[in-house]
Amino acid sequence: MKPALITHADCLAHVGTSGYQEVPDRLRVVLTALENMDFLRLDAPYAAREDLLRVHSSAHIDLMLQTVKSDEIIDLDYDTALDSRTADAALRAAGAVCLAVDGVMQGKFKQVFCAVRPPGHHAEPEKAMGFCYFSSIAIAALRAKQVYGLARIAVVDFDVHHGNGTQEALANVTGTYFASLHQHPHYPNTGQDVDIPNIRNIPMPAGTSAQDWRGAFEDKVITDLHAFKPELILVSAGFDAHKDDPLGAFNLTEDDYAWLGCVLSKIAAKYCAGRMISVLEGGYNLDALSKSTHAYITGW
Question: What is the CATH number for 164?
Answer without folding.
Answer: 3.40.800.20
